[in-house]
Each structure stands twice: as structure tokens, then as C-alpha cells.
Amino acid sequence: MSSLHQFLFGTYPYIASAIFLFGSLVRFDYAQYTWKSDSSQLLKRGQLRWGSNLFHLGILFLFLGHLVGLLTPHWVYEPFLEPAHKQLLAMVSGGIAGTMCMIGLLLLIHRRLTEPRIRANSKTMDFVILFWILLTLSLGLTSIYVSAGHSDGSVMLALSDWAQRIVTFRPGAAAAIAEAPFVFKLHLFCGMTLFLLFPFSRLVHIWSGFGSVAYLVRPYQIVRTRRLGREETQ
């Protein structure tokens, strides 16, 4: 195992995570007026509905699928789901969601590149993020074909072991995927780099989506109105 491999899959995940968390906090604290999605709906609606819906549905499913699939310990699902069957489930569901996400992403990229007003209002980071997601997604879809060559689920278990060692700060994370195919390693690197780029892009508005859940548990807001010279509480 080379020192580069050790750095990329043993140290780099913590660098990307730190920048992701603290970078988002610093941006929210010092640049709140930039904390927005910069929607281009008012500039042109064409392709937006299909592109945005397909992209968001696909990428949300992929994110949750990766989160649950990688971080769920093997002993939790072992009694009723063999690794090979779990891998097949991940390949099928991930392939469907990935294809949806890819179609939506390509529509959004085409729209941003070909519409002059949208392109003029786009920042360099907008294109960096779009094409980086495209690269990461392409590698993920490619890995499905590679997974078909080892249907026993061994690589999936190695990737899960790597992710669980990272989040629990246990040593040996890089060694867990030392023998994994190159396409998986490249996909992991691109995914981690996406988190590193997150605070510097419009993707920060995703935090607002999770934050809106707090409205479900916040206290009722008291509104007072004046009627017939008397205040009443509604």
C-alpha cells in the first residue's frame, strides 16, 4: 500500500469533512447573502422542470442509498440479506436512480450552456460543480458494470468497512480497500472532493432544506391583532 493511497483514503476523508463542516459554518456566518440556490427559473423555465426533478430525485436517492448502504454494519442485515443479494439490490436501485440523475443533470448542463442569459448569470463554480458531479456520477454508473464481475459482494463489504472505519475514527481504513478496483477508488475520491467543494458553491442551500425540518418542532408563533380597541391573542 503506497503512501499516496494511505493519504487519499486514510487522511483526505478527514480533510474534506473538516472543510465541508467548518467551511459551511464560516460561509453562513460571514456571507449569508450568498447562501442561496441562485435559481434561474425566472430567466427561463424550459427544461428546468424535467431536469431539476429528475436530478434531485435521483441524487437524493443515491445519497441516502450510499449513506445507509455503506454505514450499516454487516451484522444488522446478515440474518436476512446476504452480501451478494445486497449488492444486487444496490446495483439495480443505484442504476435506476443514477440514470434518472444523469438525464436530469445533462438537461441542466445543456440548459445552462445554451441559454445566453443563464450562462451570463452563471459563476465559474457553477460549472465546476456540475461537471464534477457528472464525473462522479459517471464513475458510479461505470462501477455497476465492474460490480457484475464479482457478484459475491466482497468489494461492497470492503467499501463498507472503509466507510465505517472512517466515521468511527478506527485505523486501517485505507488498507480495507487496498485491493478494490481502481474505478471504485476514483469514485470515492471524486465523492470526497465534492464535499470539499461544497462550501464554496451554491450547494450550501442544501443545509437550509435540512434546517427547515426544525419548523416542525418550533413553538407556535403568537400573533396579536387589535379589534374593537381590545387586543386578542390568536
From TrEMBL:
Name of this chain's protein: nitrate reductase (quinone)
Assembly and binders: Dimer of heterotrimers each composed of an alpha, a beta and a gamma chain. Alpha and beta are catalytic chains; gamma chains are involved in binding the enzyme complex to the cytoplasmic membrane.
Membrane-crossing residue ranges in chain numbering: 12-33, 54-76, 88-109, 129-148, 194-217
Binding site for heme b 2: 66, 187
Signal peptide: none
PANTHER family attached to this UniProt entry: NITRATE REDUCTASE PRIVATE CHAPERONE, REDOX ENZYME MATURATION PROTEIN REMP FAMILY, RESPIRATORY NITRATE REDUCTASE 1 GAMMA CHAIN
Catalytic activity reported: nitrate + a quinol = a quinone + nitrite + H2O
A molecular function (GO) term: nitrate reductase (quinone) activity
Predominant localisation class: membrane
Gene Ontology CC annotations of this record: nitrate reductase complex; plasma membrane
Annotated compartments: Cell membrane
Residue ranges annotated for the NarG-like domain, each copy included: 5-226
SUPFAM superfamilies the UniProt entry points to: Respiratory nitrate reductase 1 gamma chain (SSF103501)
Protein residues bound to heme b 1: 56, 205
Lineage: Bacteria, Pseudomonadati, Pseudomonadota, Hydrogenophilia, Hydrogenophilales
BP GO terms, sorted: anaerobic electron transport chain; nitrate assimilation
Keywords tagged on the record: Cell membrane, Electron transport, Heme, Iron, Membrane, Metal-binding, Nitrate assimilation, Oxidoreductase, Transmembrane, Transmembrane helix, Transport
